[in-house]
Amino acid sequence: MKKLALHWKILIGMALGVVFALIMVNFDFGKEFIKDWIKPFGTIFINSLKLIAIPLILAALIKGVSDLKDISKLSRMGGRTIIIYIITTVIAVSIGLVLVNIVNPGNSISDKTRTELVDGYSDNTTKYKEEASKQKESGPLQALIDLVPQNIFDAATSNRNMLQVIFFAVFFGIGLILIPEEKVKTVKSFFDGFNEVILKMVDLIMLAAPYGVFALLAALIAESPSVDLFKALAWYALTVILGLALMIVIYNILVFIFTKKRPSFFMKAISPAQLLAFSTSSSAATLPVTMERVTEHIGVEEEVASFVLPIGATINMDGTSLYQAVAAVFIAQAFGMDLSFGTQLGIIATATLASIGSAAVPGAGMVMLVGVLGYAGIPEAGLALIFAVDRPLDMCRTVVNVTGDASVSMLVAKSVGKLGTPKQKNWDDNYEVSKN
Ligand code: ASP
What we know:
binds aspartic acid; Proton glutamate symport protein
């Protein structure tokens, strides 16, 4: 019998997780049961993905950069990557702003609901504000300073330092290129082999993906706030989701125009990564899978994917920037503020920077939203308004973040002549653990 494709297995796992939790919450012991006996498996699954993120970046980038064999190729690819990332982010913020001004979701919030939401979630707001103010205390060039680690082992101990690890890996790769090949043969083949092993580990972890997402979604449903709050925020949530859906359409159009790959091909190939992004709310945790899908199933050559994707996972967050723009204007509307055109233009710049600064972990976009609100003079207490629906929106924006990275990797690959044919066909997608 033909094996079920991975994305179907993951979807079934997600659906069963939701149904299971909806049944369990009707019993007194249901929530506790899920927390104690189901959620840990979701956590183990995410941990195992995060576990390989740093080794993957190190191995793949060192291999990728040294495979380029020439520094000018690296700078050409780097320049294109950054420019396309910034362009897509600006498009995303602009879409968010246009939509939120058309739909006006903030006007549907009554004074009573606003007070209830602000009171109910003010503790969380304080937590987010504190975290954001820690980041704000630094000077204008802090981001640049943070890019260069003092100690690579220290940097590699936290998934939050991915940019530092990327810096080290690119630097190391450049060193490798500059030394005659025979001298560094062993080092190079060590990283080539290391990279293969990590990719095989991704395959192995993906075997557990359907069970992992079952546990993650069950826990999410069991812990989510009441449905009434969702209703109050329905228009806001719909505006964000509509914008995110538009971004997916835009990626497909860009991919089709520049690479001639059909949307059905692209979406099918990338869907397991999208489903994982949805379940984990973390582009960093999804990175190993995005990398595998893009190289094996889309045909982006590894030297491009290993450069473009880890950088994208940390700085390119189109979904997050779109959400930040919508959220900022929504909060302003709910508080009866009228934002001038100039302020809204400023939101494009601040949301672009805030999304670049957001870590690729759940909820990071909300921390950085504090900066956007601060810039536009919107009350930070408004964070409490959107808190109730933040997690589901985080899941959706992470899908867009990951899809954006994947499509940009195709565009860059095409522009440097490195978009080949996929090694694996999508319809034969069963993740057998073979000894190839
Ligand atoms: N969860 C998002 C990501 O990992 C970031 C965010 O918007 O909170 O891409």
